[in-house]
């Protein structure tokens, strides 16, 4: 089955590799794009064709919509898949793709415009009867803001309307902090997103972060593929995700999923999207935002529902109907994903750089590796710190966690500091195994998740053994360096 003769993947790294795998399985010619620094990257080698993008810095190249569209036309690609990040939620780019006579594999620009702004999307959700946390507008005069704040109650969480990733977010515990926090949040939002609009909502303490995967056909018909638990975060960034969410009563699960379908259906949403919610300890849940793209954590849904979400994106973009009715979907087992990142958990998750000297990918029952790295590759500050994802599927949550822990313990990646050992400790943690999760989990358990001290002798032995396992290093120990190799027999 060929839905499109060729598709250009406007991304890099693990998501580009992941999309290319589905394209090639479906008999679709995969076209990659790359900046010069990525010329030897796995996604370039995997693709059927690759086009270099020019840019003073790598990120500028991947954000150059005009170059990407030109590359698609030159390669006779009928459609563009944006992956996630970069241009994936840029309504202007989606419109430019359509104006060029190509197909954007994602939602239409109107949906992206509606859901891409937090204030606008919250107002829309409220109008559809989807629960939204009580909030206040911070654009009025000081007296009006103060009055609204008192009526909503403290603590409050200030957010950027155009933001994400924790930028422009401030917690306000009392009225004396509000004005200064709002000004700081607005300034940060302006710097990061070019949009200084902020609002404040009632802060739900120690909430869970639950999201729902949806597929829509653009005619108001929407399927949901269950929910994912995304509560384990550092600096508002997810590092562990799973499906289904543990310890979630079925009635509450259904209510959250139905709310997501209601919102997406009312918006006549088309293609894949994720509706995100905050869930309080009292069982009340509130709309957070909608991501109008494929999510990083989509593999856990694929493993639990036996679906290829990229294939479904392609089918919908080609004008085909949704694959089935909601009642036909069945959940099978449990899946957990961890994000392997170049960072140092023991130093407040400081980003790390370096060159990958050795990479051994874990193998085992139920394990899936979504990566875009290889030995010898440089890890630079130019891109996000995520290197790869390791996902485990099992008959139940405990089996999935055990398989993932074993896989992380098998992982060997030298040359760049990473969070693999930290993730393994999370999988083994009693509170995690019990499913007692919330967004403050990692901070709360920081001491119990800290790395145990390793004797110096053990460190030295491990490094020596790993180094001697590398062919290049082993050979260098045996080679005679120049100029002595050319001299021949000699003595000092």
Overview of the molecule:
- It is a single chain.
- The protein has 492 residues and is α+β, with helices and mostly antiparallel strands.
- It has 4 domains: 6-105, Rossmann fold (3-Layer(aba) Sandwich), CATH 3.40.50.20; 134-202, ATP-grasp fold, A domain (Dna Ligase, domain 1); 208-449, D-amino Acid Aminotransferase, Chain A, domain 1 (2-Layer Sandwich), CATH 3.30.470; 461-492, no CATH class.
- Helix content is 37%, strand content 24%.
- It is built from 20 helices and 23 strands.
- The protein has an 8-stranded antiparallel β-sheet, sandwiched between helices. A 5-stranded parallel β-sheet has the order 3-2-1-4-5.
- A hairpin with a 4-residue loop joins strand 10 (208-217) and strand 11.
- The longest helix is centred in the middle third of the chain and has 19 residues, at 175-193.
- It starts with 5 loop residues before the first strand and ends in a 5-residue tail after the last helix.
Would you count the extended β strands for me? 23
Number of structural units classed as domains: 4
Q: What fraction, in percent, of the residue positions are helical?
A: 25-40%
Binned strand content: 15-25%
Major sheet description: 8 strands, antiparallel
Count up the helices.
20
* Shape by Cα distribution: globular
Alpha-beta content class: alpha+beta
Q: Which strands sit side by side, in order, in the main sheet?
A: 14-13-10-11-12-15-22-20
CATH fold field value of the largest domain: D-amino Acid Aminotransferase, Chain A, domain 1
Instruction: Give the C-alpha Rg.
Output: 24 Å
Average pLDDT, rounded to a whole number, is: 92
Question: Unreliable stretches, pLDDT < 50, 5 or more residues?
Answer: 483-492
Task: Examine the secondary-structure arrangement and name the CATH architecture of the largest domain.
Answer: 2-Layer Sandwich
């Amino acid at each position: 089955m060929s839905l499109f003769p060729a598709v250009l993947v406007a991304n890099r790294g693990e998501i580009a590799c992941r999309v290319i795998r589905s394209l090639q399985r479906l008999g679709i010619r995969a076209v990659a794009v790359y900046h010069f620094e990525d010329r030897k990257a796995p996604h370039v080698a995997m693709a059927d064709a690759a086009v270099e993008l020019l840019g003073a810095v790598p990120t500028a190249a991947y954000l150059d919509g005009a170059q990407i569209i030109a590359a698609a036309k030159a390669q006779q690609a009928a459609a563009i898949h944006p992956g996630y990040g970069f241009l994936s939620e840029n309504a202007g780019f989606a419109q430019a793709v359509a104006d060029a006579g190509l197909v954007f594999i994602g939602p239409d620009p109107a949906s992206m415009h509606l859901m891409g702004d937090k204030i606008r999307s919250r107002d829309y959700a409220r109008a559809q009867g989807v629960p939204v946390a009580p909030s206040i507008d911070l654009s009025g005069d000081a007296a009006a803001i103060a009055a609204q704040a008192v009526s909503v109650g403290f603590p409050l969480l200030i957010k950027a309307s155009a933001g994400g990733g924790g930028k422009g977010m401030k917690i306000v515990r009392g009225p004396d902090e509000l004005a200064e926090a709002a000004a700081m949040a607005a300034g940060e939002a302006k710097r990061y997103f070019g949009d200084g609009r902020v609002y404040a909502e009632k802060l739900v303490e120690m909430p869970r972060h639950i999201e729902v995967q949806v597929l829509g056909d653009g005619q108001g018909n929407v399927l949901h593929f269950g929910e994912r638990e995304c509560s384990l975060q550092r600096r508002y960034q997810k590092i562990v995700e799973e499906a289904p969410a543990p310890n979630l009563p079925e009635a509450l699960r259904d209510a959250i999923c139905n709310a997501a379908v209601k919102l997406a259906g009312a918006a006549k949403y088309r293609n894949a999207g994720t509706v995100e919610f905050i869930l309080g300890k009292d069982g009340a849940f509130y709309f957070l935002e909608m991501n109008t793209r494929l999510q990083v954590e989509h593999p856990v849904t694929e493993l639990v529902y036996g679906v290829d979400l990229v294939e479904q994106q392609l089918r919908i973009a080609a004008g085909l109907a949704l694959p089935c009715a909601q009642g036909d979907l069945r959940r099978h087992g449990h899946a957990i994903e961890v994000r392997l990142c170049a960072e140092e958990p023991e130093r407040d998750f400081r980003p790390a750089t370096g060159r990958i000297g050795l990479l051994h990918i874990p193998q085992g029952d139920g394990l899936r590796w979504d990566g875009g790295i290889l030995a010898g590759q440089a890890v630079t500050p130019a891109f996000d710190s995520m290197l790869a994802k390791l996902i485990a599927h099992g008959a139940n949550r405990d089996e999935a966690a055990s398989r993932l822990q074993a896989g992380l313990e098998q992982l060997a990646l030298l040359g760049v500091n990473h969070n693999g050992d930290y993730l393994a400790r999370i999988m083994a943690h009693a509170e995690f195994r019990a499913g007692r999760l919330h967004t403050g989990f990692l901070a709360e358990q920081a001491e119990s998740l800290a790395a145990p001290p390793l004797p110096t002798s053990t460190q030295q032995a491990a490094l020596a053994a790993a180094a001697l396992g590398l062919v290049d290093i082993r050979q260098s120990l045996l080679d005679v360096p120049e100029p002595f190799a050319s001299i021949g027999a000699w003595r000092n």
